[in-house]
Amino acid sequence: MKPSNRLLLCTLLWCATGLLSALNFWLPNAITNPDFAPTLTTIWQVSGIVLLLVSVLDGFSQLKTSPLTIERKLGDTIALGVWTPVTITIQHGFHQPTVISLFDHHPSDVEADFPQQTVTLIPNQTLIVKYRIRPKKRGDLQFDNIEVLSPSTLGLWQLHHWQQCSSVIKVFPNFAAVSQFAMLAMEQQTSQMGVRLQQRRGEGMEFHQLRDFRQGDSLRQIDWNASARKRKVISKEYQEEKDQQIIFLLDCGRKMRNKDGDLSHFDHALNAILLMSYVALKQGDSVGLMSFAGQSRWLKPVKGVANMPKLLNHVYDLDATPSASDYSSVAKSLLTRHNKRSLVIFVSNIRDENTDDLEPAIRILQKKHLLMVANIEEPALHNITHQPVDTFKQALTYAGTIDYLDQRKVIERTLNQQGVITVNSLPNMLPVALVNRYMDIKREGRL
Fold first, then answer.
1. 174 partner at 20 to 30 Å CA-CA among 66, 119, 214, 298?
2. Are 54 and 73 in contact (CB under 8 A)?
3. Which pTM does this prediction carry?
């Protein structure tokens, strides 16, 4: 509790009155009327005692009860980088219009739009206050209590108190791309996202049914025995094999901490994994995940789109760490946990200095699995190659960048020669690039 401006003003006026009385009135009146000065002093003293008693009683009356009930409403989960409304509901017992100030102590990892507000409470009315937050970091966010300043009955004090509204909110990756993909009409509209339409029947490896020959069917689809019996050309129709498994190996090492705008490479990688996981689950495949380099987690393969929340809850608070990436170690760990042939996808930022550790990991995994490396490229390097070169320093930077990008291409060619599928993409394009490559693998029946 602290004194209000009204109490401070009353105290200031009382002090000023006493000072003026002492300087301007006491001496001349004391000469003409000796009894006047004690009388004026007594009145001044009595007024001070009355002000003190009234302020004390006003303060104690406010301490007895708090007529405020405040509730914060916010969803249990919010998305990274998305503006989300926060609603504060205030119920009160004031019998006259009352002005209060409140401040919602939000986490430091969110950007808030007007979390501190001064509002007027109207008798017999519930007040709703709204503001917005935008989280800048995934994981668990701790919201503290709400700080409130409310006036006493006579307005001489401001009661400072805290409303118990602490809560923990989960901030998930921005899975807007996943939600958007879910709203599209499957293959016929996937071109809106940049995902190429792939034929699901007639191109896979699992026999589905016999049908009449159609223009565009390959010769290998013709069933010659059935054609002889029917005396017309009959084709075999295939469908994509179901129940295949995809395992993501997610790099949480220091190279994934690089930023592309507001999001790190790790955030882009997580978005790509979520989108491809959704597509794979819709295709009937199973999806698992293992993280490494500072944060080690294992989610055994799950099947069905209903398991997307399970996947989200497993990865929402993962983040890149200062640790180095040990590819050989995670490869050995995966083989001890999972033996069934799967499409294993390294999602990382692989550079020339990492190949010595990556090659043994590839040899280990290729004994049982089909391997893909999804490599994130730095947008800043590609921007350098498109900038004009006017100075010697710019020429050195350009030459060094070209040499570095050439080394990355050598790594890609080496991996392809070893039978590894590669996807090299800028961070924001990684989700679509990864899904397109997965669809190619399904169509080609490589898994």
1. 298
2. no
3. 0.71
